[in-house]
Fold each of these.
Amino acid sequence: MERTKLTPLVVSTILALLFSSSSATWEFVEYLTFLSCLTFHSPFLTNTHNLLHTKFSPLYKPILQSSLQNLRFSSSSTPKPRYILTPSNSGQVHASVVCSRKHSLQIRVRSGGHDYEGLSSQADVPFVLVDLVNLRRIEIDLESNTAWVQSGATLGELYYEIGSKSRTLAFPAGVCATIGVGGHLSGGGKGFLTRKYGLAADNVLDAIVVNARAQVLDRESMGEDLFWAIRGGGAASFGIVVAWKIKLVPVPPKVTVFTIPVTLEQGATDLAYKWQHVAPKLPEDLYIRAFFRVGENTKGSRTIVALFTALYLGNADQLEPILNSSFPELGVSSEHLQEKRWIETVQYFAGNKRGEKLEDLKNRYWAEKGYWVAKSDFVSEPISKESLRALWEVMLKGEPGLLFWDPYGGKMESVSESETPFPHRKGNLYNIQYYSKWQKAGDGEEKAHREWINSVYNFMTPLVTKNPRGAYLNYRDLSLGSNGGDGFASFEDAKVWGESYFKGNFKRLARIKAKVDPENYFRNEQSIPPLFD
């Protein structure tokens, strides 16, 4: 095997470690042994500086910061990884697991960096950050209407590749283009095609995963239990998913979109009440999202502004009669309706300005980074007008945030709760995301926004699902409960948060964890604990 060369980067790292302090000798020794381990277990690795980054490496900080979407986790006090690894193939992922375990370092895996609690980038124990930024290959097969997409690709990159090769194929996943494929699919993945085709995880056909034993497995070799678990159960609890084989879905050459803003004074309460009864029962080709924010009315006073924004898999002439018969109160006319290619609607729903190029979907870096907190709920019974009016009063107090209501029904009604780990299907009218964002650092800012989101969330307690109160894993929320900084928790203790995300599927996930990772190597503050029979 070729001997590792002392590149200028390696030499500079060694010198920095030697002279940084007298206590750095052990860091130097660990660095060399870690480097040697990676080289030994990655036989095709010729430039280790493309894989291994220490805090003295020039790329360490840029890589660490590049995918941190929530600036709450970018402060000097945020725990930093001992090393950052940027593998380019499954062999290097294998080496990353082998060497991290050998050196008793935990692993955190990052694809797009949108984890709401920052668990993909930080830990309270010595850890390695495996950043999948170099695993972004996408291969579209138009004959089988499938694609292989590596976990480090973003949804925008995936959508662009699909749209550049076909006008009549799509993939049912989320709205934000900078979200990483790996985390999104492993947590479920919902978007404007969910009522027609289900979740992103429902449309996964195969996967390549590196498990806790550093074995590289596909669906056949991993077995159906593990394949079930990573499609909605949070893959970071079970290993590192390198790539996914997904099923592409048909869409018309032209689809229709619209957005209708309505204030309280214009009847937003009545429309929100009616939406709850209508949106989940509409034809599955039609998806109408409701969005609520604090704004101003014509007199300059604070009010609630509701936006109803929709995607219809058909042309405008077909949509008008559906709306006229099922939701005439919304007042949609031909002037509101826009026909677009499906790929163009991705930018439309992301709020991109007219005139931006489709190539912009490949931009991995979110231009609107900020600080935010979020929570989630599921609603199974319509909220009364009286309760809606009370809700608006709570929203109007303090630092304002947003509510997103995403309708269910359609395909989500027909898929069993146990088909994947994501159980929130039949009987749910819609999902709520509570979201509050700010731009200035400071404990006071965060406290004010947390107070707003907690007051709204607490108000909603009697109006949402119960026993357990549901939550969506991709809107991760540590206030539901935590395994602690070391990631260890019993099954009984973890049920506090686990059943909110997974309901009865949590026990099956824990039993699978015991089989595939009995030592609980892949763990974090909300990882699945092993349950031994």
Amino acid sequence: MPTVVAFETLTELFLNLRKKYEGTQKTAFARKPTNDSDYETISWDQVSEDVNTMAAYLVRHGVEAGDRVALLSENRYEWAVVDLALQLIGGINVSLYTSLPPNQCEYILQDSEAKVFFVSTGIQLKKASQVFDNCEHLNQVIAFDTPNIESYLDDPYVKLYEEAMSEGLKIFPKEEQEIHDRSKSITPEDLATLIYTSGTTGKPKGVMLTHRNIVSNIKAAHQRIGINDDDRCLSFLPLCHSFERTAGYYAMMAGGAEIYYAESVDTVAANMTEAHPTIIISVPRLFEKIYNLVAKSIEEGTVVKKKIFEWAQNVGQKYADGKRGLVSIQKKLADKLVFDKLKERTGGRIRFFVSGGAALQAEIGQFFMAAGLHIIEGYGLTETSPVMCCNTYGDEKMGTVGKVLPGVTVAIQRLEDSTIISELSGEDYPTDQSSEQGEILCKGPNVMEGYWKKEEETREMVDEEGYLHTGDVGKFVDGKLKITDRIKHMILNAGGKNIYPGPIEDMFKTSKWIDQLVVVGEKQPYMAALIVPDFEALEAHAEEQGIEYDAIEELLEKEEIQNIYRKETRSRSRELASHEKIRDFRLVSNEFTVETGELTPTLKIKRRIVEDKYGHLIDDIFSD
């Protein structure tokens, strides 16, 4: 589907959108001023004025074309204003995860040589105050919110966003020509952003993405996925990650869709029913939680309720597979009895979800499809702007990440001898492709310019032929890409067998007893697992069975609880090869989270951190 305006740069995207919607009162963004308030909409006319105002302020305070400006903020309207102002004057957006500690913020600020630092809350302003003196290029910090501790505002380099906007509004007439001239000079080859990788294997690297990189990805995605100006997206994944930046922000704007900001990741369930989105961009964790809540409800229900649900699932699956006639009549009844309740919990207007950032288990995707809630799964890296492949509406194949995007080429390279064994471009139709798996490579206009100030690391990632090496393992299945795992996640057991933990871990995601699971067993005679229980299910079971305990650690040690997980691991391991089976486990009493360091901001497991933190449990498993 074409974009609503023509553009070759992100600057042109903004300029042409504001021209198209000028005077129409068309909603661009929406936010909740307070927890108890309704959503407040913001028109494109207001966005245009606010972006001009911020652009004037930045120009007056010495931000030149090519200068880096950093943002440490949750998803919110002010983030978009700053970003669009930077695109207008040729600045480079450097966004940071709000979960980063001060020392990592300091590293990125120093490495990018950022001049101005925007922060959201008082918590983030405190970080900025701690590192400011160590960042020689930084000359100003601008806070979106007034901090509770107002002494932070005593520093001469700190200014409130409202003050900056007030100044910008006054000086805009004097800076208008400069802003106009800069906006006309921006080319597709200019850098638009530095997106720093999460740094799970060392210091973060700044991925250099040009206007061409991102724009090519937006346009290619629009050819695969229909987004229009009747759509509304709920934004909650971090905008400092390339998935949300391209798919949930720029691509939505390019389709004329409205962007509603969730108050936080924790309020997504409530915000869905308030915002009534038609599209939600998410990582699989959201779908896993919804699936497990529904499964738990059915498990605790009556025999009749279970029978009705199983029947509805069967009908929904037949309908999703294209069967009609009597199935159509049955589907209406299944919706009324079962699925409409689920749709109401998502706001009642969902056209489709988009899933990325990690693999979505096929069983969970099929559950949503049967309910009439389409999930379009895609795949890519920050270094590919980010989308390389995606399924299309009505042609979803669960367990794959879909076809290669137009303009992009994806190849499979054999791990043993680096021979390319399969290759497809977005313009190819499926041909006889090898089913052999190997490393996934990518070539195209979406591939990054390189890593900021890291030429050697860039050469390691992108070879002389222009192929970017993803580090992921996969293969083509009927012209669609299937991801197996990460090369660096591969476990080599004591018998010399290569084992990919990802697919094994996916098998356990539908268990009502398991919240998170990490497979371990490097150089060991068998595989084992660290398991974070679903504490809500476990505590409910303990109450029902009259099991007494003072602390969760005590509950996990009880034999009847251990037996639940012995049964669960044995049952689900039956489908695995002998060397893949989970032979032992240890229960972990704390959830893996971003805040405690075991998860990346996009909720992927940091295996090295988990293995270090819980090394004593792993040692205990294999001590014999």
